[in-house]
Amino acid sequence: MIIDLHYLPSLEYFACILQHDTITIEAHEYYEKQSYRNRCKILASNKIDILSIPVQNGNSKVLIRDLKIEYRQEWLRRHWGAIYSAYGKSPFFEYYADFFATVFEKKTDFLFDFNLELLTICLKLLKVEKKIIFTEEYQKVAQNDYRGQIHPKRDYALNNIYQPIAYRQNFGNEFEPNLSIIDLLFCQGNQAVKVLEHSITK
């Protein structure tokens, strides 16, 4: 399969990954604004919170591997503060938080590298082993192509990849589906991968 690289990806993204042994990450596309490449969704105390990473030259035609993160805005503190407020009291936060905090403290230059390190940590915590490779050039057509399919403006139900399986979340009486993987990890810990496996659309 081939897929674009997201920031703390959604459950749909991981439900997709679980179905394939080799994951090819698109490394030669142009950055797309208002996509999951630089944003994710978490569940805050009274609403879904969208965390968005500011980037340099986001309005220009920039290759994803060349796209730099903008640190003149205080987004790191805002994102980690939002994550702590949302999940600090969740059952598995103390076990997993340091893995993520270390990445947030680094001030990684490029969005691609930042996202890749977070993806690697998520797979490690899920105890999911996949072979990850990268495209060597951009090809418009590819087999098992999921590039652009998992998108904030596209209903996950249309993709037929992920079906919501409810688990206990920190806030609210109604289950919020398809949030960032950290919602599942912090709330369910070592049971997270089982929830994902049951979330794959049959």
What can you tell me about this protein's structure?
This protein is an alpha/beta fold. The protein has one domain. It has 7 helices and 5 strands. The protein has helices spanning 11-17, 75-87, 93-104, 111-126, 156-159, 181-188, 192-199; strands at residues 2-3, 22-25, 39-43, 48-52, 131-134. The strands form 2 sheets. It has a 3-stranded parallel beta sheet with strand order 1-2-5, with no helix packed on it. The chain has a two-stranded antiparallel sheet with strand order 3-4. Helix 3 (93-104) runs antiparallel to helix 4 (111-126). The two termini are 18 Å apart.
Concise account of the structure shown:
The protein is built from 7 helices and 5 strands, in the order βαβββαααβααα. The chain has 202 residues and is α/β, with parallel strands linked by helices.
Shape: globular
Computed over alpha carbons, the radius of gyration is 16 Å
- Give the helix level as a range of percent: 25-40%
* Number of E strands: 5
Q: Mean pLDDT, nearest integer?
A: 96
**Portion in strands:** 5-15%
The overall number of domains is 1
Q: Numbering strands along the chain, what is their spatial order in the largest sheet?
A: 1-2-5
